[in-house]
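Record type: monomer structure entry
Structure origin: computed from sequence
Chain ID: A
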Amino acid sequence: MIHQQESKPQPNTLQVGVPLQIRELGLVDYLPTWEAMRNFTDARSEQLNGPVSDEIWICEHPPVFTLGLAGDPAHMLHRSNIPLVKTDRGGQITYHGPGQIVVYPLLDLRRFGLKVREYVQLLEQSIIDALVQVGVADAQRKPNAPGVYTFHNGALAKIAALGIKIRKGCAYHGLSLNVAMDLNPFLQINPCGYAGLETVDLATIGVKISQAEMQMHLMKYLIQHLEAARSAVAK
Protein backbone atom coordinates (compact mmCIF):
# COMPACT_ATOMS: atom_id res chain seq x y z
CA MET A 1 0.00 0.00 0.00
CA ILE A 2 1.34 3.43 -0.93
CA HIS A 3 0.44 6.24 1.42
CA GLN A 4 0.28 9.95 0.76
CA GLN A 5 -0.33 13.04 2.82
CA GLU A 6 -4.10 13.26 3.09
CA SER A 7 -6.58 15.72 4.52
CA LYS A 8 -9.63 14.75 6.53
CA PRO A 9 -12.94 15.19 4.65
CA GLN A 10 -15.08 18.09 5.86
CA PRO A 11 -18.62 17.30 4.67
CA ASN A 12 -21.46 19.73 4.17
CA THR A 13 -24.72 18.09 5.18
CA LEU A 14 -27.93 18.31 3.18
CA GLN A 15 -31.01 16.62 4.61
CA VAL A 16 -32.98 14.57 2.07
CA GLY A 17 -35.84 12.99 3.94
CA VAL A 18 -35.43 11.05 7.15
CA PRO A 19 -33.24 9.22 7.88
CA LEU A 20 -31.46 9.31 4.48
CA GLN A 21 -28.90 12.12 4.32
CA ILE A 22 -26.64 13.37 1.54
CA ARG A 23 -23.15 14.58 2.36
CA GLU A 24 -21.18 16.41 -0.31
CA LEU A 25 -17.52 16.06 0.60
CA GLY A 26 -15.95 17.80 -2.38
CA LEU A 27 -12.41 16.81 -3.41
CA VAL A 28 -11.04 14.53 -0.68
CA ASP A 29 -8.21 12.03 -0.47
CA TYR A 30 -9.13 8.39 -0.66
CA LEU A 31 -7.55 6.97 2.52
CA PRO A 32 -9.22 9.22 5.13
CA THR A 33 -12.55 8.88 3.29
CA TRP A 34 -12.28 5.09 3.38
CA GLU A 35 -11.35 5.22 7.07
CA ALA A 36 -14.33 7.49 7.77
CA MET A 37 -16.66 5.05 5.98
CA ARG A 38 -15.38 2.15 8.06
CA ASN A 39 -15.68 4.13 11.28
CA PHE A 40 -19.23 5.18 10.40
CA THR A 41 -20.19 1.57 9.65
CA ASP A 42 -18.55 0.24 12.82
CA ALA A 43 -20.42 2.80 14.92
CA ARG A 44 -23.84 1.81 13.59
CA SER A 45 -26.37 0.33 15.97
CA GLU A 46 -27.03 -3.38 15.68
CA GLN A 47 -30.75 -2.63 15.84
CA LEU A 48 -32.70 -2.27 12.61
CA ASN A 49 -34.18 1.06 13.68
CA GLY A 50 -31.13 2.26 15.56
CA PRO A 51 -30.14 5.91 15.93
CA VAL A 52 -27.55 6.00 13.10
CA SER A 53 -29.13 7.29 9.90
CA ASP A 54 -28.38 6.06 6.42
CA GLU A 55 -26.19 8.41 4.43
CA ILE A 56 -24.88 8.90 0.89
CA TRP A 57 -21.48 10.53 0.53
CA ILE A 58 -20.62 12.20 -2.78
CA CYS A 59 -17.06 13.15 -3.56
CA GLU A 60 -14.20 13.36 -6.01
CA HIS A 61 -10.73 11.93 -5.38
CA PRO A 62 -7.25 13.07 -6.41
CA PRO A 63 -5.59 10.46 -8.68
CA VAL A 64 -5.46 7.05 -6.97
CA PHE A 65 -5.60 3.37 -7.91
CA THR A 66 -7.54 1.12 -5.55
CA LEU A 67 -7.24 -2.67 -5.39
CA GLY A 68 -10.07 -4.80 -3.97
CA LEU A 69 -9.66 -7.17 -1.04
CA ALA A 70 -9.10 -10.24 -3.25
CA GLY A 71 -7.69 -8.24 -6.15
CA ASP A 72 -4.71 -9.44 -8.17
CA PRO A 73 -1.81 -6.93 -8.22
CA ALA A 74 -0.88 -8.30 -11.65
CA HIS A 75 -3.70 -6.20 -13.07
CA MET A 76 -1.50 -3.15 -12.42
CA LEU A 77 0.33 -3.18 -15.76
CA HIS A 78 2.54 -0.13 -15.31
CA ARG A 79 3.55 1.68 -12.13
CA SER A 80 3.64 5.44 -11.91
CA ASN A 81 3.63 8.11 -9.24
CA ILE A 82 -0.13 7.62 -8.75
CA PRO A 83 -0.69 5.98 -5.34
CA LEU A 84 -2.02 2.43 -5.07
CA VAL A 85 -4.27 1.65 -2.09
CA LYS A 86 -5.23 -1.91 -1.13
CA THR A 87 -8.76 -1.53 0.18
CA ASP A 88 -11.48 -3.78 1.60
CA ARG A 89 -14.13 -3.52 -1.11
CA GLY A 90 -14.96 -6.29 -3.54
CA GLY A 91 -13.65 -6.32 -7.09
CA GLN A 92 -10.27 -5.86 -8.71
CA ILE A 93 -8.37 -2.68 -9.57
CA THR A 94 -9.81 0.65 -10.65
CA TYR A 95 -8.81 4.28 -10.90
CA HIS A 96 -10.31 7.39 -9.32
CA GLY A 97 -9.47 10.92 -10.36
CA PRO A 98 -10.80 14.42 -10.95
CA GLY A 99 -13.72 14.57 -13.36
CA GLN A 100 -15.32 11.45 -11.91
CA ILE A 101 -18.36 11.32 -9.62
CA VAL A 102 -17.81 8.97 -6.67
CA VAL A 103 -20.84 7.97 -4.58
CA TYR A 104 -20.59 6.04 -1.31
CA PRO A 105 -23.99 4.89 0.02
CA LEU A 106 -23.64 3.96 3.70
CA LEU A 107 -26.76 1.92 4.20
CA ASP A 108 -28.28 -0.64 6.51
CA LEU A 109 -29.57 -2.85 3.72
CA ARG A 110 -32.16 -4.42 6.05
CA ARG A 111 -33.99 -1.09 6.16
CA PHE A 112 -34.36 -1.27 2.38
CA GLY A 113 -35.13 -4.97 2.16
CA LEU A 114 -32.14 -5.48 -0.13
CA LYS A 115 -29.88 -8.48 -0.51
CA VAL A 116 -26.43 -8.02 -2.02
CA ARG A 117 -27.35 -8.87 -5.61
CA GLU A 118 -30.47 -6.69 -5.46
CA TYR A 119 -28.42 -3.83 -4.08
CA VAL A 120 -25.84 -4.12 -6.88
CA GLN A 121 -28.65 -4.13 -9.43
CA LEU A 122 -30.20 -1.06 -7.81
CA LEU A 123 -26.91 0.84 -8.07
CA GLU A 124 -26.47 -0.21 -11.70
CA GLN A 125 -30.04 0.74 -12.58
CA SER A 126 -29.64 4.16 -11.00
CA ILE A 127 -26.59 4.81 -13.19
CA ILE A 128 -28.30 3.46 -16.31
CA ASP A 129 -31.38 5.64 -15.72
CA ALA A 130 -29.20 8.74 -15.26
CA LEU A 131 -27.19 8.00 -18.40
CA VAL A 132 -30.31 7.42 -20.49
CA GLN A 133 -31.63 10.73 -19.16
CA VAL A 134 -28.64 12.56 -20.69
CA GLY A 135 -28.78 10.73 -24.01
CA VAL A 136 -26.73 7.55 -23.51
CA ALA A 137 -29.51 5.30 -24.80
CA ASP A 138 -27.38 2.15 -24.93
CA ALA A 139 -26.20 2.27 -21.29
CA GLN A 140 -26.34 -1.31 -20.07
CA ARG A 141 -25.09 -4.06 -17.80
CA LYS A 142 -22.58 -6.71 -18.88
CA PRO A 143 -23.07 -10.31 -17.66
CA ASN A 144 -20.72 -11.30 -14.83
CA ALA A 145 -19.02 -7.90 -14.92
CA PRO A 146 -20.56 -5.43 -12.43
CA GLY A 147 -20.71 -1.84 -13.60
CA VAL A 148 -22.30 0.04 -16.47
CA TYR A 149 -21.19 -0.01 -20.10
CA THR A 150 -21.83 1.76 -23.40
CA PHE A 151 -20.75 1.00 -26.94
CA HIS A 152 -17.65 2.81 -28.21
CA ASN A 153 -15.52 1.91 -31.22
CA GLY A 154 -17.75 -1.09 -31.89
CA ALA A 155 -17.39 -2.71 -28.46
CA LEU A 156 -18.69 -2.31 -24.94
CA ALA A 157 -16.65 0.17 -22.92
CA LYS A 158 -16.94 0.80 -19.19
CA ILE A 159 -18.24 4.16 -18.05
CA ALA A 160 -19.12 3.38 -14.41
CA ALA A 161 -17.60 1.02 -11.85
CA LEU A 162 -18.99 -0.64 -8.72
CA GLY A 163 -17.27 -1.97 -5.63
CA ILE A 164 -19.00 -2.58 -2.32
CA LYS A 165 -18.39 -4.00 1.12
CA ILE A 166 -21.11 -5.49 3.35
CA ARG A 167 -20.47 -5.77 7.08
CA LYS A 168 -23.20 -7.03 9.43
CA GLY A 169 -25.86 -6.13 6.89
CA CYS A 170 -24.48 -2.62 6.29
CA ALA A 171 -22.98 -1.45 3.01
CA TYR A 172 -20.17 0.95 2.29
CA HIS A 173 -17.95 1.85 -0.69
CA GLY A 174 -20.11 2.28 -3.80
CA LEU A 175 -19.84 3.51 -7.38
CA SER A 176 -17.94 5.83 -9.68
CA LEU A 177 -19.17 7.46 -12.89
CA ASN A 178 -16.76 9.00 -15.40
CA VAL A 179 -17.83 12.46 -16.60
CA ALA A 180 -14.84 14.33 -18.06
CA MET A 181 -11.50 13.07 -16.83
CA ASP A 182 -7.98 12.10 -17.86
CA LEU A 183 -8.50 8.49 -18.97
CA ASN A 184 -4.81 7.71 -19.51
CA PRO A 185 -4.35 6.13 -16.04
CA PHE A 186 -6.86 3.43 -17.02
CA LEU A 187 -4.30 2.31 -19.63
CA GLN A 188 -1.97 1.38 -16.77
CA ILE A 189 -4.37 -1.29 -15.48
CA ASN A 190 -6.73 -4.05 -16.55
CA PRO A 191 -9.87 -2.17 -15.45
CA CYS A 192 -11.73 -4.27 -12.90
CA GLY A 193 -9.52 -7.19 -13.94
CA TYR A 194 -10.51 -7.30 -17.62
CA ALA A 195 -7.60 -7.14 -20.06
CA GLY A 196 -8.25 -4.92 -23.06
CA LEU A 197 -11.42 -3.36 -21.62
CA GLU A 198 -11.74 0.24 -22.75
CA THR A 199 -12.79 2.85 -20.22
CA VAL A 200 -14.66 5.93 -21.41
CA ASP A 201 -16.25 9.02 -19.94
CA LEU A 202 -19.22 11.09 -21.01
CA ALA A 203 -16.98 13.58 -22.78
CA THR A 204 -15.43 10.81 -24.91
CA ILE A 205 -18.81 9.65 -26.18
CA GLY A 206 -19.92 13.18 -27.01
CA VAL A 207 -22.07 14.07 -24.00
CA LYS A 208 -21.24 17.58 -22.85
CA ILE A 209 -22.51 18.01 -19.32
CA SER A 210 -21.16 19.52 -16.15
CA GLN A 211 -20.23 17.27 -13.29
CA ALA A 212 -22.75 19.06 -11.06
CA GLU A 213 -25.61 18.45 -13.51
CA MET A 214 -24.70 14.79 -13.99
CA GLN A 215 -24.50 14.36 -10.23
CA MET A 216 -28.00 15.79 -9.93
CA HIS A 217 -29.40 13.24 -12.39
CA LEU A 218 -27.56 10.35 -10.73
CA MET A 219 -28.68 11.26 -7.25
CA LYS A 220 -32.28 11.74 -8.36
CA TYR A 221 -32.51 8.17 -9.59
CA LEU A 222 -30.48 6.66 -6.76
CA ILE A 223 -32.71 8.27 -4.15
CA GLN A 224 -35.85 7.29 -6.06
CA HIS A 225 -34.83 3.64 -6.18
CA LEU A 226 -33.77 3.57 -2.55
CA GLU A 227 -36.96 5.23 -1.37
CA ALA A 228 -39.01 2.79 -3.44
CA ALA A 229 -37.20 -0.13 -1.84
CA ARG A 230 -37.69 1.29 1.65
CA SER A 231 -41.38 1.98 0.98
CA ALA A 232 -41.84 -1.64 -0.09
CA VAL A 233 -40.40 -2.79 3.23
CA ALA A 234 -42.80 -0.51 5.13
CA LYS A 235 -45.89 -1.99 3.46
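Annotation 1: The chain is about 25% helix and 25% strand.
Annotation 2: Confidence is low (pLDDT under 50) at residues 1-18.
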